[in-house]
Amino acid sequence: MNDHSFFDFISNKDLLVIFTIIFTVVYGYTTAFFLYRIRRRRLRNLFTFYKAISVGLNDGTIQTLEDFINIYKGIHGLSSDDTTYRQGLVRLLRRFIVDLVLRETHIREPALIIAYKEKLTKLIEEMARNEPFVNLPNAERTVLNDVSKMIELGDTKNAIHKLEEIAGLIEARQDSIERLEKSNKWAIPLATIGLILTIVFGIISIFK
User: Fold this and answer.
1) Which of 83, 71, 197, 91 lies closest to 145 in space, CA to CA?
2) Domain residue ranges in the chain
3) Which segments of the chain does DSSP mark as H helices, in order?
4) Residue 61, SS3?
5) Per-residue pLDDT of the chain in tens (208 residues, 90 and over written 9)
6) Residues 38, 26: Cα–Cα separation, whole Å
7) Scanning 124, 139, 167, 202, which has the fewest C-beta atoms within 10 Å of its C-beta?
8) 171, 156 in Cβ contact below 8 A?
9) Does the CA dihedral 139-140-141-142 come out positive or negative?
10) Cβ(147)–Cβ(166) under 8 Å?
11) pTM to 2 decimal places
């Protein structure tokens, strides 16, 4: 009786193909798993934020902009001095207003919907006054804040210089976006085709 193992009947090339298939499957599964975890965490944070706002508005425990900021930071695990919350908080407040109007929250009474919509709108406007250009990237927001202060002080010359600076930032960002769009145009289709061909030819090599 010959004592041969499974690996005695396959070549190094077949081993490489098998390894490639296993690696591809494991990599694809791992990537899908982590993307699922990230999406699930985002949905959980959104649900918790909505629930906290709904309860807080109904029982009056949420009154000020600071209350909303603290809730947002608490849910997303941000420190007290973290300033990255601005754009995310404004986006969620606007989304909550849309869901209020569409009756997609636990708040269904028309009078409450109107009252809460007005309250949230005023909070968003307060953020816009206290922190102008909140939805812009940090670089552009900083320059525009400087321009606003210079215009208030009547410093037209430096304000114009700052506007030229922000024009350069916009051009650089637009150039980066265009390069990214060009590089990504075929990246996903080619990666998908490559994955399929790897698996197909790997299977063919094994059973050849």
Assistant:
1) 83
2) 11-134, 136-196
3) 12-59, 65-76, 85-101, 110-130, 138-152, 156-184, 187-207
4) coil
5) 455 554 555 555 666 666 777 777 777 778 888 888 888 888 898 899 989 998 898 888 888 888 998 999 998 888 877 777 887 888 899 999 999 999 888 888 889 999 999 999 998 888 877 776 766 667 777 777 788 888 888 888 887 887 777 777 777 777 777 776 666 665 566 566 666 666 555 555 555 5
6) 18
7) 167
8) no
9) positive
10) yes
11) 0.57
- Letter for the amino acid at 161? H
Phi, psi of 24 (to 5 degrees): -65, -45
Structure tokens at 203: 């299977």
Q: Is 68 exposed, middle or buried (0-12, 13-18, 19+ CB in 10 A)?
A: buried
Tokens of 34: 């982590």
